[in-house]
Amino acid sequence: MDFWKLIESSKSGRVTTDDVEGQLKELQHSMASLSLEELKTFEMELRRVLHELYRGDVVDLCIMLDNDFETKDGVIVFEDGISDEWFLYFRCWLVLQGKQFFDALAESIENIVDHSVDIADTWGEGLLYVADEVYASQNKEAAEFFVSESISAMGNPTDYDNPDEELKGEPQYIDHALHYPKIVKRISEIKDSLD
Q: What's the pLDDT tens digit per position in 155-182?
């Protein structure tokens, strides 16, 4: 079981470039023959990569891609609020973009401007349930969240919903234009083209 190969091949399920649901259905289809141990391995790898994305600059990226903004004194200022749940689902969407994209973000979130991604739908919540849904389809009597609960019961230190976890690095919140000029410029260009 190769986590990133499964993610990459699942992109073929997209009907449109922002078709997260189509991609998730293809991912489930690709995982249908995996054993319970392989499903657990997938779940643990998912948690590991989501944990790697638990960073302040990724919070900033979420704010810039998903929040409204206005121009004040010639500077673009984004609304700064996101919930923990929203941030988790956004990180799932980032993972669904594939390994090359993931590696580029590890270097700098500004690398997003060098990749062709559709930001119309950045909500990847369904990725959290793929292993459980595949196992449930294989075992009709299985508990609803059997795979994820069995991993959580192991006390996995990279649990993606650990409330005691601290972000790696501080978000910039209001200084996005200063810290991420390439992203802010690109978002401004996209908005201008839609107006």
A: 655 666 666 678 898 888 778 888 999 9
